[in-house]
Amino acid sequence: MDIVAVGYPSPLTKWAFLFLEKALRQIVPDLSVLRFDRFDTLADKPSSTENRLILSMFPNPAFAEDYLKTGQRCLVFADDLIEAVRHTQATHRISPYEALRPISAGLVLARPFAQSPLCKIVGRDVRGTPVDILNMFLEHFGLEISNDIVQGISRGIGFEDVSLSAKLREDTRDLAETSDEDRDVIAQVLGGLYRSLGHSTPGEITWPRQCFLLGDRPNSVTPVAIDLTGRARIMFYGPYFHLPRGRWKVRVLVGFSQNIQGMPFSIDVHSRESLGKARIFAKHGGIFDFEFEAKVTTPHEPIEVRIMSEQGAIEGHMGLVGIDFKEWSLLPKDMASAT
User: Which domain of life is it from (predicted)?
Assistant: First the structure.
């Protein structure tokens, strides 16, 4: 028997994985606990026992495809996005925008599981006592556990006589608060993925300026406007987020100062391979948008966007407003398998 639970990095996922493992070790004989990363498949994780608990924050697409063919059940944990970012930021001592990278990966890679009719999506607003919640988890897999065992596990992890949401708030109360600007960025990057988690069509996604890095100063956050003076070069790059597999319409919004002197720019979206390219010729100042298509085939790979000037400049400024991904559709290969 396989029991699979997935969830992007967050307080809820951390707690639920621990709760599940402790409970199952009490009631399932010879349990193997396997933790899958984004490059792991079932063949990479052999087990000497028939009973396996498989936990993954970044399930590989091939693993998801193979597992879902078996018709077995799974759990997907979907925590509050702000709390997920705070947790990831504190755990790895990184910026909020860097924390978006693993969370976007986890959200994208959980989608195939969440769309299965045999999946149960669990948020932090689930109600009930620890006994109620764990029984709900286990009943999904046709398992039972005594109340005494659950209460002992709950005491061991400090989860007694409070709601799950209260327990998770208590665990993160000392973490840094999230600014209004950061909340807005989190909503733009992750909101569409979160709201559409259990649906076949992902929502619209925006990668705003704040998520990109400055070509002249690697690892520096991009300001509102940058100086174009100098040689041809990469102006913006990043943000190393993830997108669901499929065909996307990409809309890039940029601005140029009035003293721009007719400059060509190129944009390249790539992961392991090029996903899409475009070219724009800035004849004069103003804010402009342009669109092109990108095809994502490896959702477990982070995506880099590079915006480059193709010739040197003696004056002028440029600003990146953001990049929208919208009007998603299936790839031709996936259309054939869906029919």
Answer: Bacteria
